[in-house]
């Protein structure tokens, strides 16, 4: 299993939240925001935690805030920027809109690797569901995908040396993604 000194935690929070109607990273989750919750969740597993997304409000979170090196490249651009920034051989990537990810899921993921460059989750048609564990060794493949304007996360799973962990049925609800106000009202209680 990877040691925290080998990992930089990354929270992807640079999206436009157009379906949500406002910056969902700053939406309430209990007594805190999605972003604060996910940032705190990552801290025990990482040498450093960073936010990938350049909103002025993020400066108050007490962690480095990264602006994408190449704009308009979506989550893949955030991963690329974080890999360039990190001083560790791995990044552990969570999104700000998946507040139900648990310590158990992260631990399972960290224990599942057997030397792959990218480890993610798989359920039905969704390949490469977050969270993701990405090695710096994947950087050349990510650069090639960006050069070809192939910005979907599945592009990094179309290469060799990747692993997709099947989501157990009993964990499926933990992978809920909050994309709209309706999702928020129906999911956050």
Shape: globular
SS class: alpha/beta
The share of residues in helices is: 10-25%
Percent range for β-strand residues: 15-25%
Our Rg estimate from Cα atoms comes to 15 Å
Largest sheet: 7 strands, mixed
- Average pLDDT, rounded to a whole number, is 90
Give me the side-by-side strand order of the main sheet. 5-4-1-6-8-7-9
**Alpha plus pi helix count:** 5
Segments where pLDDT lies below 50 for 5+ residues?
Answer: none
Question: Can you describe this structure?
Answer:
This protein has 189 residues and is of the alpha/beta class. Helices cover 25% and strands 24% of the residues. It has five helices and nine strands. It has helices at 34-42, 74-85, 103-112, 139-147, 181-187; strands spanning 7-12, 28-29, 32-33, 48-52, 64-66, 90-95, 118-123, 126-135, 162-166. A seven-stranded mixed sheet has the order 5-4-1-6-8-7-9, with helices on both faces. A two-stranded antiparallel sheet has the order 2-3. Helix 2 runs antiparallel to helix 4. The mean pLDDT is 90.
């Amino acid at each position: 299993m990877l040691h925290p000194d080998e990992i930089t935690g990354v929270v992807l929070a640079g999206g436009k939240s157009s379906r949500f109607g406002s910056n969902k990273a700053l939406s309430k989750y209990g007594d805190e925001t999605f972003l604060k919750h996910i940032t705190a969740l990552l801290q025990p597993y990482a040498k450093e935690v960073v936010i990938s997304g350049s909103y002025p409000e993020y400066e108050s979170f007490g962690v480095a805030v990264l602006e994408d090196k190449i704009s308009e490249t979506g989550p893949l651009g955030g991963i690329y920027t974080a890999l360039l920034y990190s001083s560790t051989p791995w990044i552990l990537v969570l999104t700000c809109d998946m507040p139900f990810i648990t310590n158990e899921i992260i631990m399972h993921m960290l224990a599942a690797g057997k030397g792959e460059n990218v480890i993610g989750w798989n359920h039905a048609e969704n390949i490469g569901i977050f969270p993701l564990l990405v090695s710096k060794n994947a950087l050349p493949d990510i650069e090639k995908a960006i050069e070809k304007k192939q910005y979907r996360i599945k592009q990094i799973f179309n290469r060799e040396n990747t692993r997709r962990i099947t989501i157990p049925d009993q964990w499926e609800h933990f992978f809920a993604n909050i994309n709209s106000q309706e999702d928020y009202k129906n999911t956050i209680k």
